[in-house]
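> forwarded from #structure-qc
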């Protein structure tokens, strides 16, 4: 706990960091298109999952049987799958849903959390050691502004809040490593803690999805909790911007 408190207490006031240049700001149209893309992807995933749930091999528990045939190696194989999908830009919702179906919402959520956390750390190391110059060159001044802001603010709390907002975004994983402003220890711990809420929420969501009707699913309080996690991350980020890091302890 002392080590964790030192991580939380470390850093300078975030307000001391100069704002990013205006030319680096994302245009409004781009933000709207990105949000529309996310909504379409979510709708497509729900439709595809609903379609697959009608097949006999899903309804009869064949997925569980296939996973259980691997025996003691099943959890390790699933975690490895999560690592690969995280590195290769596959939406993390897919392996989390598969884990929920195969292992149950609790065990599947825990294995998914370990897998995508390791995958995010692997992407961080790849960005830090293998593609730092390329990613920084492609992102330009925005990458430097983001890296400088994170490094000079409360880096641990900042990482947790950003995970609550962006979850396991692959570009964020690579970009954070490429800036080389966040230590591996802070990145790993902040990533793990920040991924916990939404990972288990998605796992339980898939479990409910397989057992409930669409009407019951849409009226479930869990659906409303997803945007609340992002709002919590935004509020924490706002506190980090307006207060010195040592006042948060």
């Amino acid at each position: 706990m002392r080590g964790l408190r030192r991580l939380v207490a470390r850093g300078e006031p975030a307000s001391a960091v100069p704002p990013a240049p205006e030319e680096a700001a994302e245009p409004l149209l781009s933000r709207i298109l990105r949000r529309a893309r996310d909504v379409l992807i979510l709708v497509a995933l729900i439709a595809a999952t609903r379609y697959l749930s009608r097949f006999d091999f899903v309804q009869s528990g064949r997925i569980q049987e296939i996973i259980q045939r691997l025996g003691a190696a099943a959890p390790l194989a699933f975690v490895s799958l999560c690592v690969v999908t995280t590195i290769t830009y596959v939406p993390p919702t897919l392996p989390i849903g598969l884990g929920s179906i195969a292992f149950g919402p609790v065990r599947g959520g825990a294995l998914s959390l370990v897998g995508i956390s390791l995958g995010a750390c692997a992407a961080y190391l790849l960005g830090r050691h293998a593609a730092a110059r390329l990613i920084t060159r492609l992102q330009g001044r925005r990458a430097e502004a983001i890296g400088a802001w994170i490094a000079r603010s409360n880096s641990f709390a900042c990482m947790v809040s950003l995970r609550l907002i962006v979850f396991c975004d692959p570009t964020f994983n690579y970009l954070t490593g490429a800036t080389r402003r966040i230590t591996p220890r802070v990145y790993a711990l902040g990533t793990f803690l920040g991924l916990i809420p939404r990972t288990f929420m998605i796992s339980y969501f898939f479990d409910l999805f397989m057992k409930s009707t669409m009407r019951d699913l849409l009226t479930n309080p869990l659906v409303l909790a997803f945007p609340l996690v992002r709002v919590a991350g935004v509020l924490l980020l706002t506190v980090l911007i307006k207060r010195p890091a040592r006042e948060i302890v």
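QC bot note: The radius of gyration is 19 Å. Confidence is low (pLDDT under 50) at residues 11-25, 244-249.
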